[in-house]
Amino acid sequence: MPFVISDECVACGSCVDSCPNGAIVEGEERFEITEDCVDCGACVDACPVNAIKET
Ligand code: SF4
Ligand code: SF4
User: Fold this and answer.
1) Which domains does the chain possess?
2) pLDDT one-digit tens code per residue, 5-46
3) Quick one: DSSP state of residue 32?
4) Dihedral of the CA atoms 15, 17, 23, 29 (nearest 10)?
5) What is residue 12's DSSP assignment?
6) Atom of ligand 1 nearest to the CA of 1
7) Does residue 1 register a pLDDT over 70?
8) Which residue, of 8, 40, 47, 50, is most buried by count of CB atoms within 10 Å of its CB?
9) Can you give the pTM of this predicted structure?
Protein backbone atom coordinates (compact mmCIF):
# COMPACT_ATOMS: atom_id res chain seq x y z
CA MET A 1 0.00 0.00 0.00
CA PRO A 2 2.43 2.70 -1.15
CA PHE A 3 -0.20 5.43 -1.38
CA VAL A 4 -0.97 7.38 1.78
CA ILE A 5 -2.95 10.48 2.70
CA SER A 6 -0.82 12.99 4.56
CA ASP A 7 -1.81 15.45 7.27
CA GLU A 8 -2.24 18.06 4.54
CA CYS A 9 -5.67 16.51 3.89
CA VAL A 10 -8.44 19.05 4.40
CA ALA A 11 -11.13 16.34 4.43
CA CYS A 12 -12.91 17.63 1.34
CA GLY A 13 -13.85 14.14 0.18
CA SER A 14 -12.99 14.75 -3.48
CA CYS A 15 -10.76 11.69 -3.69
CA VAL A 16 -13.35 9.16 -2.55
CA ASP A 17 -15.16 8.80 -5.87
CA SER A 18 -11.89 8.68 -7.79
CA CYS A 19 -11.00 5.33 -6.28
CA PRO A 20 -12.20 2.36 -8.35
CA ASN A 21 -11.86 0.05 -5.39
CA GLY A 22 -13.57 1.99 -2.61
CA ALA A 23 -10.31 2.15 -0.70
CA ILE A 24 -10.61 5.72 0.57
CA VAL A 25 -12.60 6.19 3.76
CA GLU A 26 -13.25 9.03 6.17
CA GLY A 27 -11.11 8.73 9.28
CA GLU A 28 -11.23 10.69 12.51
CA GLU A 29 -9.20 13.71 11.40
CA ARG A 30 -8.59 13.09 7.73
CA PHE A 31 -9.37 10.63 5.02
CA GLU A 32 -7.48 7.35 4.94
CA ILE A 33 -6.48 4.73 2.38
CA THR A 34 -7.35 1.20 3.39
CA GLU A 35 -5.82 -2.15 2.56
CA ASP A 36 -8.22 -2.39 -0.39
CA CYS A 37 -5.92 -0.01 -2.29
CA VAL A 38 -4.61 -1.59 -5.50
CA ASP A 39 -1.97 1.09 -6.10
CA CYS A 40 -3.50 2.45 -9.30
CA GLY A 41 -2.70 6.09 -8.51
CA ALA A 42 -6.05 7.43 -9.73
CA CYS A 43 -6.70 9.33 -6.51
CA VAL A 44 -3.55 11.43 -6.64
CA ASP A 45 -4.80 13.94 -9.22
CA ALA A 46 -8.22 14.14 -7.54
CA CYS A 47 -6.79 15.87 -4.47
CA PRO A 48 -6.80 19.68 -4.67
CA VAL A 49 -4.11 20.06 -2.02
CA ASN A 50 -1.81 17.24 -3.16
CA ALA A 51 -2.24 15.35 0.09
CA ILE A 52 -2.07 11.90 -1.50
CA LYS A 53 1.51 10.72 -1.72
CA GLU A 54 3.22 7.71 -3.15
CA THR A 55 5.68 6.46 -0.56
S1 SF4 B 1 -4.13 4.36 -5.51
FE2 SF4 B 1 -6.01 3.68 -6.64
S3 SF4 B 1 -6.84 1.98 -5.41
FE4 SF4 B 1 -5.38 3.10 -4.10
S5 SF4 B 1 -6.63 4.56 -2.96
FE6 SF4 B 1 -5.85 5.63 -4.81
S7 SF4 B 1 -7.47 5.38 -6.37
FE8 SF4 B 1 -7.83 3.86 -4.72
S1 SF4 C 1 -9.09 14.96 -1.96
FE2 SF4 C 1 -7.24 15.36 -0.71
S3 SF4 C 1 -7.90 16.88 0.81
FE4 SF4 C 1 -9.76 15.98 -0.05
S5 SF4 C 1 -10.28 14.26 1.34
FE6 SF4 C 1 -9.00 13.42 -0.31
S7 SF4 C 1 -6.90 13.50 0.47
FE8 SF4 C 1 -8.13 14.86 1.75
Assistant:
1) 1-55 (3.30.70.20)
2) 999 999 999 999 999 999 999 999 999 999 999 999 999 999
3) E
4) 40
5) -
6) 4
7) no
8) 47
9) 0.94
